[in-house]
Amino acid sequence: MKKKLLLFWMVTLVLASCTKEPVQPDIPTFQKPGVFVVNEGNFTTGNASLTWYHSDSVFKDAFYAINKVPLGDVANYMTVHDNKGYIVINNSGVVYVIDINTGAFLDKISGLSSPREILIVDNNKAWVSDLFSKFISVVDLNTYKVVNTINLHGRTSESLVRIGDKVFVNNWSRLNQIPENNMVLVLDVGTEKIVDSVQVSLEPNSMVADASNKLWVLCSGGYNNIEIPALYRIDPVNDSVEEKLVFGQKNMNPFALNINGAGTRLWFLNNGICKVDIDSHKIPTEPLIPQGTHNFYSLGVRPDIESLYASDALDYVRNGTVYYYDSTGNLSGEFEAGIIPGSFCFIY
């Protein structure tokens, strides 16, 4: 009898110490707070998907479950405005619009070449960047039609960050263009034209604005390690570089720059999850969370509580895993997403 009681308490303690696995409900419900994981899927296979995670429940392929159609070919980015979610489907050349409370399809923006990100300028207008086209598409949010294009003079575009009446656009990829990919273009919201540019290092892959409305730009130095990677702080008033923080080696590959909700701490991937306080003036020599055996592919920072979501793309064929940590680096949990979890959109 004593042996049975001992075994019972040992099993109870083991079960209590395990991280609770998220469960898949019968139907997706979009309770706040939560996060949409935008899964790229494999190029040309049309197996992109949308995963919804809330508390201890996860719903994979939520878009298909609700709308009975696939999400498309290479889902790249998602943002939310006025209870609508805008999902950018890169190789399909569209942006889907959904109701974030129900997940239901509302409309789509089509006629795009290779869209990357979307910036909601105001209630009536959005801008869409493009990997192949040398212009920004201006979209009327009442009709979801492209009504104008902004000429980028031979450059392609990736991230869009608005500070005041300016939108900063990074020229990330060298594909399909002649100029070097080492520029941040400055566009005026009112005139919808380029008004300035800021030269940075090769391959500026991600940008954020901090609490003081300074622009931070992370550059990998080029896909073949031509230059040493660097992190720039840019003054948006006069469009000038205020500070350049240089990484230790050419063969580093920093990417996925994020910032906490307070705008005081930067996070990015570089052989793990790294953090930089905006007033520290130096690049960390070691990541806060080492990559270890993970294949970290994307990073998101939940703004309200500064928890860190990092996706592991595994072998790029199986469903990836999302790990989430607190701001001190402790693992809080994990859940399975779709194939190549590429970006996060937090709802709170």
Globally, the shape reads globular
Give the class from helix and strand content and strand pairing.
Answer: mainly beta
Strands of the largest sheet, in order across it?
A: 3-2-1-28
From N to C, what is the helix and strand string? HEEEHEEEEEEEEEEEEEEEEEEEEEEEEE
User: Which runs of at least 5 residues are low in confidence (pLDDT < 50)?
Assistant: 1-19
Oligomer: single chain
In helices, the fraction of residues equals under 10%
The largest sheet, given as strand count, sense and whether it forms a barrel, is: 4 strands, antiparallel
Q: What is the average of the pLDDT values?
A: 93
Give me the number of helical elements. Answer: 2
Descriptive report:
The protein contains two helices and 28 strands. By secondary structure, it is mostly beta strands. A four-stranded antiparallel sheet has the order 3-2-1-28. Strand 16 and strand 17 (215-219) form a beta hairpin. The model is unreliable at 1-19 (pLDDT under 50).
Protein topology:
Layout: H1 2-17, E1 34-39, E2 49-54, E3 57-59, H2 62-67, E4 75-81, E5 84-89, E6 94-99, E7 105-109, E8 115-122, E9 125-130, E10 135-140, E11 145-151, E12 160-163, E13 166-170, E14 183-188, E15 193-199, E16 204-209, E17 215-219, E18 230-235, E19 240-246, E20 255-259, E21 265-269, E22 272-277, E23 289-290, E24 296-301, E25 308-312, E26 319-325, E27 331-339, E28 341-347
Antiparallel strand pairs: 1-2, 1-28, 2-3, 4-5, 5-6, 6-7, 8-9, 9-10, 10-11, 12-13, 13-14, 14-15, 16-17, 17-18, 18-19, 20-21, 21-22, 22-23, 24-25, 25-26, 26-27
